[in-house]
């Protein structure tokens, strides 16, 4: 057996990325087809933005956001957490992993960070600094 159980690099391994993407696709399909036996969850339109897996693939953190702010993100996460067992079962049936990963749901803040970045770049002081850096080259 290898003496190094986990990758020592700074980012996730290719396997973590691949499994995360498969889980994301599976959850997206299940939520899109409204296959869960919870009318409240089926009434929500939820986007699965990203899934990150732990190095041993036993924990998957799922980043979700309701579409167009239709419901508060806390309500969506609560509904997903209530149905975590059924969602985990659906993921396990689609993937061929030794263990079905434990699903943890978190709000997806990617869009908020993108809006903040756009706001910063449109700031006149930042535009002036960017223009000054371009003039030096």
Low-confidence stretches: none
Q: What's the overall geometry?
A: flat
Strand-pairing-aware structural class: alpha+beta
Q: Helicity, in percent?
A: 40-55%
Which band does the percent of strand residues land in?
15-25%
How large is the count of helical segments? Answer: 6
Largest sheet: 3 strands, mixed
The residue-averaged pLDDT reads 83
Name of the level-1 CATH class: Alpha Beta
* Whole-angstrom Rg: 19 Å
CATH T-level topology: GMP Synthetase, Chain A, domain 3
Features:
single chain, about 140 residues, three-stranded mixed β-sheet, alpha+beta, 6 helices, GMP Synthetase, Chain A, domain 3
Structure description:
This protein has 137 residues and is α+β, with helices and mostly antiparallel strands. The chain has one domain: GMP Synthetase, Chain A, domain 3. 51% of the residues lie in helices and 16% in strands. It has a three-stranded mixed sheet, covered by helices on one side. A hairpin with a 5-residue loop joins β1 and β2. α1 crosses α4.
Short description:
With 137 residues, the protein is of the alpha+beta class. It contains six helices and three strands; from the N terminus they run ααββααβαα.
């Amino acid at each position: 057996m290898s003496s190094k159980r986990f990758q020592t690099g700074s980012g996730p391994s290719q396997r973590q990325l691949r499994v995360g993407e498969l889980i994301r696709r599976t959850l997206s399909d299940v939520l899109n087809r409204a296959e869960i036996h919870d009318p409240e969850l089926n009434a929500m339109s939820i986007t699965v933005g990203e899934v990150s897996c732990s190095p041993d693939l036993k924990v998957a953190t799922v980043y979700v956001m309701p579409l167009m702010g239709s419901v508060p993100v806390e309500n969506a996460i609560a509904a997903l957490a209530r149905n975590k067992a059924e969602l985990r079962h659906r993921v396990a049936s689609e993937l061929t992993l030794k263990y079905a990963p434990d699903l943890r749901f978190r709000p997806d803040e990617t869009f908020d960070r993108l809006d903040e970045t756009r706001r910063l770049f449109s700031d006149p002081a930042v535009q002036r600094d960017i223009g000054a850096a371009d003039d030096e080259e």
